[in-house]
Design a protein that fits this description.
alpha/beta, eight-stranded parallel barrel, globular, binds glyceraldehyde-3-phosphate, binds zinc ion
């Protein structure tokens, strides 16, 4: 039975598990991610960024993902990751995305509330779930001062004002290939006690197993992974790079991505127990 992304995340929050979010950027990455979802039978988010939309074209990339959905026995949700442009967001809702992230994290609180409310108003009639971000999750190499992290009182106010379905929080995780993160679990705990909707962590690539387990035990319901998949893709490409048939090169890229995604799905599904 297909449930909504919102209900899936609410159940994850209740059951102390996390749902995986995996970014795809072409046919092969989409095939690899959806095969991993199919084999693990764990519903997950298949995410597309605005950069991928510019690269592949909205119609092309969504047709690929939708077609793959028809061929599989497991559910997954087509999600716009880090949506910033309202026109693109409208198009994504029209074309059938079931989940949208509005990233207003670069704005001041009031502007972030305003743009998030606009997206919620567009999404609700179509039953599309909305994720927003409050605070700033940095990129590798960027120094994010503590005061850019999510304030628990502001998070509560933000959710109340916007009526968003899930909230991405900045608690010290970083986008990209990082070896060390300084995660503020106390802050997360406080956010969790004030915010009753599912919490999302960005920057999944740099997380260690014990950090994943701890984040879930502190109330995280969705974990986003992008860079790790691109690294796996390129590793696979290099394994067969001397081949003259591009399909052989791309097949090893798909195999590598699929292995990474399967492992992550299983780890997220173990919840707080996936400490090893
Ligand atoms: O929105 C996407 C995620 O936050 C990806 O983070 O590239 O560190 O895995 P990552
Ligand atoms: Zn992110």
């Amino acid at each position: 039975m297909i449930i909504s992304p919102k209900d899936l995340l609410i159940a994850a929050r209740r059951n102390e598990k996390a749902i995986g979010h995996f970014n795809v950027f072409n046919f092969e990455s989409a095939r690899a991610v959806t095969s991993a979802i199919n084999e693990t039978k764990k519903p997950s988010f298949v995410a597309i960024t605005e950069t991928t939309i510019h690269y592949a074209g909205l119609g092309v990339i969504t047709s690929i993902v939708k077609k793959l959905a028809q061929e599989l026995e497991a559910d997954f949700f087509m999600h716009l990751d880090h949506g910033k442009n309202l026109e693109t967001i409208k198009e994504c809702i029209e074309v059938g995305f079931s989940s949208i992230m509005i990233d207003g994290s670069a704005f001041h609180f009031e502007e972030n509330v305003d743009i998030t409310k606009k997206v919620v108003a567009l999404a609700r009639p179509k039953r599309v779930s909305v994720e927003a971000e409050l605070g700033h999750v940095g990129r590798v190499g960027e120094i994010v001062p503590k005061h850019f992290q999510t304030r628990p009182d502001r998070a509560e106010e933000f959710v109340e004002l916007t009526k968003v379905d899930s909230l991405a929080v900045a608690v010290g995780t970083i986008h990209g290939l990082v070896t060390k993160m300084d995660i503020d679990y106390q802050r997360l705990k406080e956010i969790f006690s004030r915010v009753k909707i599912p919490l999302v962590i960005h920057g999944g690539t740099g997380l260690k197993n014990r950090e994943i387990a701890k984040l879930i035990s502190y109330g995280v319901s969705k974990i986003n992974v992008d860079t790790a998949l691109r690294i796996a893709f390129m590793r696979g490409m290099r394994q067969n790079i001397t081949e003259m048939d591009p399909r052989k090169v791309l097949t090893s890229a798909m195999d590598e991505v699929k292995i990474v995604v399967q492992k992550l799905i299983q780890r997220f599904d173990k919840g707080a127990g996936g400490n090893e």
